[in-house]
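ok trying again, last paste got cut off:
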Amino acid sequence: MNVDQLNARAEGRLAGLVGLEVLEARQSLIRGALTVRPELQAPTGFLHTATIIAMLDTLAGYGAGMNMPDRAIGFTTIEVSSSFFGTAREGRVLGEAVPIHCGSTTQVWSANCWRESDNKEIAVFRCTQMVLYPQRRGEQKED
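nice, full thing came through this time. structure:
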């Protein structure tokens, strides 16, 4: 998928609601940005950590989607972790995601986020995705 397709895909979904704009999309790197606005802030006036996680998880998810093995029908998140070093009250924050591992059953993506105004890193994020395949004939479906 290209940048325009990813941005169109976000409309009406969480990525679109937070205002994520994909700036670059390659199999090995996904970059994006969002503008801090009151709806994305915690009651303290700082950018809500959930907004940052939404941004970085979306960028990693777009990357995972661009790296699906043959026969895969999708993926689902099985683990996330994040650490925060700062925040923002205004301006734009930038993020990027890169693959650490793209296997046939799992993918691991690392992402980070920083303030555009001073390039101060504010968060790191890592997620593991499970690659999904069509169910084989005769296999039991798990609940």
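cool. The mean pLDDT is 94. The CA atoms of residues 39 and 117 lie 20 Å apart.
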